[in-house]
Amino acid sequence: MEDLSKEELYTVSYKTESLETCIRQRHSVREYLPKEVDQTIIEDCLRLAQLAPSNSNIQNWRLLIASGAGRERIVKALMKEATTGDAPNIPPLPEKYRHFRSELGRELYGAGGYGIPRSDKEARDKAVLRNYEFFGAPVIAIIAQDPALANIDSLSSGMWLQTFILALTEQGLGTCVEVSVAGYPEVLKREFGTDLDILCGLAIGWPSDSKLNRLHTGRGKIEDNVKWVKE
Ligand SMILES: Cc1cc2nc3c(=O)[nH]c(=O)nc-3n(C[C@H](O)[C@H](O)[C@H](O)COP(=O)(O)O)c2cc1C
Q1: Residues 78, 186: contact at Cβ < 8 Å?
Q2: Boundaries of each Nitroreductase domain copy (predicted)?
Q3: Which of 176, 184, 213, 215 to mutate to test the pocket of ligand 1 (most atoms within 8 A of CB)?
Q4: Largest interatomic CA distance in the chain
Q5: Inside any domain, residue 225
Q6: Would 62 be classed as within a structural domain?
Q7: Could you say which DSSP state residue 22 is in?
Q8: Which of 175, 198, 210, 215 is most exposed by smallest CB count within 10 Å?
C-alpha cells in the first residue's frame, strides 16, 4: 500500500461538528444498536487519526479491527475465557486512585446506570461480562504496540486513539475504550493473529438510546491535574 498523499492528509473534506461539540459529546457507550457500521466511515476516521503526532513520526499505533464473523469468533473466545477461565490479568490500581473506581462503579451500576443493587452479585457479574462482548458493538478492535517500544510510544498511541475516537464521534458513532479485554492478552493475540503487546480494546458502533448511554461521569478540578509554574 502506498503512503497517504499530502492532499489526502490535509484536505478538509467535511466539517459537520465543532471540535468542542465532539469533545463534549464523546462519552463511553455501553449499549449498541445491532446495526452494521459502513467500513468507509471507519476508513475516513482512520485517515484523520493518521495525522496524530508521534515520537520521531514513527506512527506506531496499531489497530486490529474485526466485524462480522471475525467479531463473533473473537467475542466467543473471550466470553469462554471470562466465564470459565482464570480472572483477567488487569494491573491493580494503586491505593490512592481506587476511590475513583468506586465512584465510577456507584454511578455505572447505580440508578443512573445499570440500576443493579450492590447486593445483586449475580446481576453485577453479568454486567461486568458485557465488557467481553464489547457491549454488543458490531465493530471491535484492539490497540496494540510493538514490544520493542517504550512508555513514551504508548503516549503516541493514546493521542492517536483520542483523535480516532473524536473522528468517530463526529460521525455519530459511539465508542468505549476497554482495559478489561486486555486482561486476556493470549486470547486476543491468538484470535487477532498478532504478537504485538495489547494496550486496550475499543468498542465501536451506533449508540442505542438507553439510559445507560446517557450516563455522564464527573471530573475533578483542574488544579488536581495541572501545576502552573510562573516564577
Ligand atoms: C484506558 C481506558 C480503559 C478503560 N477501560 C474500560 C473498561 O474496561 N470497561 C469500561 O466499561 N470502561 C472502560 N473505560 C471507560 C472509562 O470508564 C471512562 O472513560 C471514564 O469513566 C470516563 O467516562 P466517559 O468516557 O464516559 O467520559 C476505559 C477508559 C480508558 C481511557
Answers
A1: no
A2: 23-206
A3: 176
A4: 59
A5: no
A6: yes
A7: H
A8: 210
In a domain, 59, yes or no: yes
Atom of ligand 1 nearest to the CA of 181: 8
Q: Encode pLDDT of 57-80 as tens digits.
A: 999 999 999 999 999 999 999 999
Q: Which residues pair with 200 in a beta bridge?
A: 143
| Residue in the block written with cell 464489547 | 134
Return the DSSP state at 219: -
The residues, ordered by sequence, that sit 6+ positions from 192 with a Cβ below 8 Å of its Cβ are 64, 66, 74, 142, 144
Counted domains in the chain: 1
Nearest CA to ligand 1 atom 31: 177
What local confidence, expressed as pLDDT, does residue 8 receive? Answer: 76
Strand 62-66 and strand 197-205: the pairing is: unpaired
Q: Output the residue whose Cα is nearest ligand 1's atom 19.
A: 28
Rounded to whole angstroms, the Cα distance separating 131 from 178 reads 7
Distance (angstroms) between ligand 1 centre and the Cα of 27 equals 9
- Residues of the chain with pLDDT > 90: what percent? 90
